[in-house]
Structures are given as structure tokens and as C-alpha cells.
Amino acid sequence: MTSTPLRFRPLLKQTIWGGRRLGEMLHKPIGDADDYAESWEIVDHGDDQSVVTDGEMAGQSLGELFANRREWLMGKDWVEANPNANTFPLLLKFLDCNRVLSVQVHPDDAYGATMQPPDLGKTEAWVILHSEPDSVIYSGLKAGVDRESLREMMLAGETDRALHSYHPEVGDCVFIPAGTVHALGGGLVVAEIQQSSNTTFRLFDWNRVDASGKSRPLHIESSLEVSDYERGPVEPIRKPIHSGTETLVECDKFVLRRVHGSDQTIAGDDRCHLLTVISGEATLSGENGPTKLATGESVLLPAACDQMDLQAGESTVLWMSPPTSI
To answer: Can you quote the record's cofactor note (predicted)?
Structure first.
């Protein structure tokens, strides 16, 4: 057994919709750049690999640990329940959205398995860390929108008419199961936990064109095929932040909890756990001494970890793990 949390070097992604808040709010090493859009904190997906920064596992990627030390990392029950898994199942990231993102939908696992190359489906959840007064989230289709009406709006360049939208508040959680049409608006910073997948279909890009007058391609037929027309409008999970531990999302892909202003016992249960500090500082205490975590820092506790104590003080920590029922 080991009680040493795994720290990883974040993978920073630059795009035209990024900004500076990953550095200013979450202390990511972006230097003078003003176009960093994503910080992938814990990932094992193809060439995108988290690499351990210190300790006896230093230099090893998460993919290598999953391949070579799977039971140590994931736990016996998870390995027995997922004999064909070939990747760490979850991906943790931060996003800084300086402008509205394209409208997307993700397929489920069954559809992902038919793609070339095959991939997992993508169920995800967001926790809002920053929201401007005019920020908007688009989540789910308006009541009454079916496949044919969505097709008509897509072809007319009016997909926005089909989308349910609202202004998000800091602390909101938004659960986006596979098949849910969605988009993050401008002025938002979010923490996201998702399946380790890159299966995304674009329905709408707000009729934007590049300097040469070209628009990005849309995936009309694939989007129509995988969209969930029964889910309807998706409202935020809006719970006041209070001292203690609360479960925000519990689904068949992950459990997402929020710990604020209290202590919590974690690990020692033959299950891996992911932690990220979204405000303040926290400390993990185990047999090998304390591990201090500042705002924006994330760690993975392998299933082989002994029980540890999380002291959150007045801080807020997101705590994620594979589903409780395997």
C-alpha cells in the first residue's frame, strides 16, 4: 500500500477562445500568453498523457501506470468489472472560455465503439468557477425540439433557436450526459470531469468564418443521430456552498462531490480518487506526511492508497471517483 498522492504536470492547450484566467485564477504556468483555453490536469488519452512529477513514479505517464499497474491504480473490483478497458476512464480539466464555444454533442459508449478509431462515449459535468454578468450556458434542447425540427434549424444556420439557455452562477454544477446538446458561453471558467474521450460532433459554430471566409465543418448527420431528444432543457444543479461534503453528480461514469470548510476521510477503499482545489488551500495527511495543495492543484490517489485525511479549512475541493456501484 502507498499513501503518496500522484501529482502530474498539467497539459496546457492554446486556442483562439482562451485567455489569461488559467494563470491568474488557477496559477497555471502560462507566462505572458493570453490564449490558454484548457489545462488538462489528469488525462490518459492517446498522445495526451499526464506525467508524474515527483516521487517513486516520477517520469511515468498515467497510461503507463494504467497498463502496468492497473489493479494498484484502479482497484481489484474495478479491474474485474472492466476487463476490456484500455485507458484510465476519467479526464479532469479546467477551461477558460473568452468567447462562446461551438454547440456540440457527444455520443455514448456504444456509438463511440463504432468510430474509427474506437473511443469511449463522453458524459461530463462542469462546476462554474467564474462567470461574467452576461455569461450564458446552453444545455439541452428546448421542449418540443425533435430530430426533424433540429435538422431544419441546423441547415438554416439557426441552431441557437433550439437551445435552452440560462445565466450560470459561481458554484453551479451542470451535468451533461452523452447525447445532451450543449455549449459554454464566453466569460466562463469551469472545472470539468468527463470520460476520457474526444468524441465530439459540432452542430453549430454561430455562423462564424475565418479570415478567408471559411467556416468550420459541421457534423450534421452524426449530431442528429446521437442527440437525445427526450432529455429536454437541462437546468443547473444549484446548491448553496456550505460546510461539509455534498454529492453533486452520481452517475454510471463518475461521482462528483464538493468538500468545503470541513475535514473528510478519503481513500483506503480499493478505489481511485481525484482531487482538485478550486479555491483556497487544502492538506492531505497520511502515513508519509502531509501533502499541501494550492488553488488549481490536482492529485490522483491510487486505489492502493491507505486512508488519508483531507483538511479543507475554508477552502473548496472537488472530489471525483469512478462510480460507487461497479
So the answer is: Binds 1 zinc ion per subunit.
